[in-house]
Amino acid sequence: MARRKKIYEGKAKILYEGPEPGTIVQYFKDDATAFNAQKKDVIEGKGVLNNRLSEFFMTGLNNIGVPTHFLRRLNMREQLCRSCEIIPLEVIVRNVAAGSMSKRLGIEEGTQLPRPIVEYCLKNDDLGDPLVTEEHIAAFGWASQQDMDDIVHLALRVNDFLSGVMMAVGIKLVDFKIEIGRVYEGDFQRLVVADEISPDSCRLWDIESGKHLDKDVFRRDLGSLTDAYTEVAQRLGVLPRSAGTTKPTLIN
User: Fold this and answer.
1) Which of 18, 28, 34, 82 could tie 69 with a disulfide, CB 3.0–4.6 Å?
2) Which residues, at least 6 apart from 2, have a Cβ–Cβ distance to it below 8 Å?
3) Structural domains in the chain?
């Protein structure tokens, strides 16, 4: 499709005006970043894999009644989404201690948490996306109390869905982050899961071996990021397992 006006460019995606009012086109780049963009690289095929995986997860959520901004995939790197007003928070759900939680609280990485823990970070790259509390969110008006109740409900439903899907293919969902957007329908608004859900935004460990299948492969120099993401896509059936080939053919 013909390119329209660029609205925004982030570290991993570009947003363009959509073909119809109230829509945007989300383009997935091959750029990989970590540590608030202090570490950068371009990894061929990463954007294609994340586009297909995010399509898989968002479609699954839509099918079970969890609203998302996703409408349909347009091609190998682009998807059509509803335009929404992004709440300036990253919503993180943790099932297992890892990453910054282990560092902050001194909990050994890999420790199973007693229940899923929901955390919030302010979306601000200049500040390093600092952790904030519901008190901060209410005081500064980033979201109302009703919004927060809905956000927690959405986040835990996403967690239930992703945990089950991953467990079925031998992968442990350690944690993930999502963004939430407001969609306006006349005088009413509703909250939807926005942005993307992919190995860029999740921690995924092989249940048997503990092997990382997420962006920590890039953060910690643990091997090929595309190999890790391809393995996730193959296990989920997004990609076929092609015997005798190193680069599987993507299913249209």
Assistant:
1) 82
2) none
3) 6-84+225-236 (3.30.200.20), 85-206 (3.30.470.20)
